[in-house]
Specification:
Layout: E1 4-7, H1 22-28, E2 34-35, E3 38-39, E4 49-56, E5 60-68, E6 71-74, E7 88-94, E8 102-108, E9 113-119, E10 122-125, H2 128-131, E11 135-138, E12 145-149, E13 153-161, E14 177-185, E15 194-196, E16 214-218
Parallel strand pairs: 1-16
Antiparallel strand pairs: 2-4, 3-15, 4-5, 5-13, 6-12, 7-8, 7-14, 8-9, 9-10, 11-13, 14-15, 14-16
Amino acid sequence: MMKTMYIPKVASAGETVEARLVPALLDKAEVAFEPIHCVNWKDYPYCPEVKFRIAHTGDSVLLEYRVKEASVRAVADTDNGRVWEDSCCEFFFQMPGDKENYYNFECNCGGTLLAGYGRRGEREHAPLEVTKLADRWTSLGQAPFEERACDGEWQLALRLPKTLFFRHSIESFDGMTARANFYKCGDKLASPHFLSWTPINLPEPCFHCPEFFGSVRFTD
């Protein structure tokens, strides 16, 4: 059965919310966390504690992740780099009417973002002048660093404006019903892992599988 999640509106369209203020705003609005804890492949049993919450302002998507894991890594320091090899939180999103194409937004714990669109195996990166529109905040800071032990919980907050969805002209997220999945990975960590919000039934790790996305409904 497909998971369904309602995405609340927490601020007015046109109101700019800085990424660093997203956690406090979502606290004030009492937006609940969802776990990312589906371990889909037995060869990768490690399951760090990961949760996320999501809201919108009409013209931006607001995301917060909180992660407890044994170690962290943020080597990729340029947008559209190999962030999935680091401690990485991801948001895959399929617009209404799209059948095979979807967006992927992947951000490491240092705030480096990858943004793409297309179908599986035929991906197009967003231009760097577009990725810079995404506001990011991370509790670990933005300097690149090699893998190190992680003591406690780290946070990542994102504001993804509608212009970041670069192959669509979105007027507003108000009332939109779309499909999405949320992930946590770390391909090159000492304990590699591939967690998802909704289960994935594939023989090997792969997040590029919109057939396993859940339903997300934006309130207005």
